[in-house]
Design brief:
This protein is α+β, with helices and mostly antiparallel strands. Helices cover about 30% and strands about 20% of the residues. It is built from 11 helices and 17 strands. The radius of gyration is 23 Å and the shape is elongated.
């Protein structure tokens, strides 16, 4: 598909706040997604598909109320809600029922399965096991056993479907990008020597929240969390962390070991501004590097390499290109510049990717990483983030979010000017 910016995505200021008022998923989006999922269910030889995670349920139904969404291979999809049933019925675009007693849920699922099953085969219900707690899995398996049904892992099916964004989804990401650009521009007025990372982040969060940011950015990976962004100055940005990204940040303590600390901004040091925004559930991810004064020569040279890697990556974000190719090319460029040990982290704490899909979650497919051999397709939205980490010194890099087009180069959704931000 050839994507063009929609009128509502160019809103700014108070218009973004109005656009961010309570809004539900259009019915057509839900219907199209469920129809595609049923087609995949049939192709995979499954008898049904069970969703348990809030984000997946929202993607297919339009509501994030707690419960279970069941999609039979043939027939009507049903949302079984624990709470709030009333709210789910207002928001969801499929039949919604009260979950009721959990011990009876297995019989309800079995009743919704297609009757035609080859002799001797259990009815198979696919479910994304990557987000299903083991305890819940065991309870569901016990409920389904008497009905001759079993759960099987179908995590890739959900993740593959969500890779391709509709024009409506892309418009949401564009609105988040516009809000992030405006908030960053305003917050840069407060980025001064002697201001703490925490104080500046609070200013950015104020600016982004009043433009409709929902206050969080969701991740799918177990034990991974992401806040509105990772902001770090000098050596604080280069402190490694459990977070699966090229820069962790010192954080506010062992209970929050990532992103901002109370360290004060200083002169002539890199300041990494890895910030995002989430509007209507959809996320933009971007990074800019700032400096108060001048960057040291070594860091300025490394920053120039990130720009060249970004330009080369743009040439490879095309339909049919294997997802690992941009990463391999970026790694080769870093090695040529003698910066391989600093690329996407440092030493043992390096991450092995260049970019990642983004949408309702930060860590969607595809991943621009070694071993990720699926071809890129039009409609994929990918954040590309070449960065270099220098322990005890800082981190430099950039990050843009792109949508892959059917023809021609990718379209950059990020709105903030890309160049190094030099502050007096």
């Amino acid at each position: 598909m050839r994507h063009e910016r929609v009128e509502e995505s160019s809103l700014n200021g108070s218009d973004i706040m109005r656009a961010g008022e309570y809004r539900i998923l259009p019915a057509g989006e839900s219907e199209a997604r469920i129809s595609r999922m049923q087609q995949v269910i049939q192709e995979e030889g499954l008898d049904g598909f069970l969703l348990t995670q809030n984000t997946d349920i929202y993607y297919l139904t339009g509501t994030m109320q707690t419960g279970y969404c069941f999609i039979p291979a043939v027939g009507e999809a049903v949302l079984y809600v624990r709470r709030s049933v009333a709210r789910a019925r207002e928001e969801a675009h499929i039949r919604t029922e009260e979950l009721g007693a959990f011990r009876e849920f297995g019989a309800k699922l079995a009743a919704g399965l297609a009757a035609a099953v080859p002799p001797g085969r259990k009815r198979l219900i696919g479910t994304p096991l990557d987000v299903l707690p083991a305890q819940t899995y065991l309870k569901l398996a016990d409920l389904l056993e008497p009905a001759g049904a079993a759960l099987t892992d179908a995590s890739p099916l959900m993740r593959r479907q969500r890779m391709i964004k509709s024009p409506w989804e892309i418009a949401r990401i564009e609105q988040a990008a516009q809000a992030a650009a405006e908030a960053l521009a305003e917050a840069l007025n407060f980025l001064k020597e002697g201001v703490s990372e925490l104080d500046w982040m609070a200013r950015y969060e104020y600016e982004i929240r009043k433009r409709g940011h929902i206050g969080l950015m969701r991740m799918r990976a177990y034990n991974q969390e992401v806040i509105t962004g990772m902001v770090g100055a000098g050596e604080a940005a280069a402190v490694p962390s459990y977070f699966d990204g090229p820069a962790g940040g010192r954080g506010l303590g062992a209970s929050a070991p990532q992103s901002v600390s109370r360290r004060l901004f200083g002169r002539n040091e890199p300041i990494l501004l890895d910030v995002g925004c989430c509007i209507d559930g959809y996320i933009i991810d971007q990074t800019r590097t700032a400096v108060i004064g001048e960057l040291p020569e070594e860091l300025l040279r490394a920053y120039g390499v990130t720009e060249r890697i970004m330009r080369q990556s743009e040439k490879l974000l095309l339909p049919g290109i294997i997802a690992e190719k941009p990463y391999q090319e970026a790694l080769h460029m870093a090695e040529q510049e003698g910066l391989a040990d600093h690329f996407m982290g440092f030493g043992a704490d390096r991450v092995r990717f260049l970019g990642h899909g983004i949408g309702l979650e930060v860590d969607e497919w595809p991943v621009l990483a070694k071993g990720f051999t699926m071809p890129l397709r039009a409609g994929m939205v990918i954040a590309v983030e070449p960065k270099f980490t220098f322990p005890g010194v800082g981190v430099v890099g950039i990050e843009n979010t792109y949508v892959i087009q059917e023809e021609g180069p990718p379209l950059a959704l990020t709105r903030s000017p890309e160049q190094l931000i030099v502050l007096p």
